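Re: nicotinamide-adenine-dinucleotide structure - here you go.
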Amino acid sequence: MSDRYGDFVQSSIGKKVAKNLGLPLPVELERFESGQRLVRGSVLIGRAKGDDQSLSSAAANILSQLQAEVFANADDSVKSALDDAGISAKPVADDDTKFKVLLFDASNVKNTEDLKQVYEFFHKVARRVQVSGRVIVLGRPPEAFDDIEAALSQRALEGFVRSVGKEFKRGITAQLIYVAKGAEQNIDSTLRFFTSARSAYVSGQVVRVGAGSHLEVDWTQPLKGKTMLVTGASRGIGESIAKVLAREGAHVIGLDVENQKGDLKTVMDELKGTALFVDITSNDAGEKIAEAAKAAGGLDAIIHNAGITRDKTLANMDEQKWDLVININLASIAKINRYLLDNNVLNKDARIVCVSSISGIAGNMGQTNYATSKAGVIGLVNATAKQLESKDNGMTINAVAPGFIETSMTEAIPFAIREAGRRMNSLSQGGLPIDVAETIAWLASPASGGLNGNIVRVCGQSLLGA
Ligand SMILES: NC(=O)c1ccc[n+]([C@@H]2O[C@H](COP(=O)([O-])OP(=O)(O)OC[C@H]3O[C@@H](n4cnc5c(N)ncnc54)[C@H](O)[C@@H]3O)[C@@H](O)[C@H]2O)c1
């Protein structure tokens, strides 16, 4: 769908008009293309003083694999971690050199005084971040501390990161990654995602990386040899998910309803995937998926993307609209998961990724049915994550919660509401289906074993439910 305002402000006259009127100034976001370097610019890394160097060391090892150009402040203790990783960091000069990534290890922040180091690191370079730059803070999950000072200081980082996401503009995103002690090696896939253009429309997020099987992957094709099923794959976000998973090496089984036959076949032919025609609300949906999985030699991931809206205010909503949305968006997912887990259809270390929505987090006018279903998806992910954790078979479940994504679903929204939805976020624009797809590919990766029970918003840090 075209974003005429977004195109207009890219022109010099458009930029002037928007600036003078105080209107939003969205920049064209950088997006990942195959073969591209993950970090396209230099990285400034820093670390809060303290004994624990384990997170800095893990980050330094990844930066060394990415062959990133790394800078560090002259007096920063991060240097020893960089030395160990074989990185000779460049000193930060007092000029206007700009950075693509600002990465700060705040794991040693244990009290309010320590928080000052976060201010000092970022304040000096707040104007020196490139367009589509990345701000990343690493910390420890506050709930892991008995000490109140330590817990509050780590929790405080959330407010910092979310505010940076709102302030920096120009396509710059900010995230906080809480890493459990001992799970440092599991940050690999997460750091690669957040430092790159793959996370273009993800901002202001807090992600928890925990223990979980750490699987080595070939980073050029991390999903190679994996079979992954995507529901609602014939168009929109589902089509994009199928394409990105295939690009990363997966064999994709695309599922959709019979009347999407033509579109689904076209997409699957292009990807050399398998088309599967099933209504996910049918009683035998689980069996049909299991048969297709068996024929493909097992299933390594299922992406529950299919979903619908039937908007009406509650007073005007008939029973059918309520039932249809709850059945497709929520009940079918719970039923299919139960079948797949009870019948051991999923391979060891399988990934389940659900598609929720920010409506499920914030609620939305005219969407009681939809918001109920999407909030239920979050409940399903939380409860299933706990179950999977106790099973010890490497499986994980996570969800994405998209905001305003340019698809036929959002094209149906009346103009004024659509324009408001598109601009009411820190990036002042709608996201693209590929932004959701890239996020799902990260969560579905065999290398993401440390991610379980996360709900990651793909919403440009929407004001809704923020
Ligand atoms: N577009 C957005 O802005 C947005 C925002 C938040 C969440 N989402 C969610 O993202 C997902 C994809 O949305 P989209 O915009 O691509 O929608 P879409 O309408 O373009 O695609 C949905 C797909 O699901 C399929 N589907 C519907 N009912 C089905 C059923 N019973 N069985 C099998 N397949 C079925 C449809 O045929 C279609 O191919 C949905 O879950 C939606 O709720 C979208």
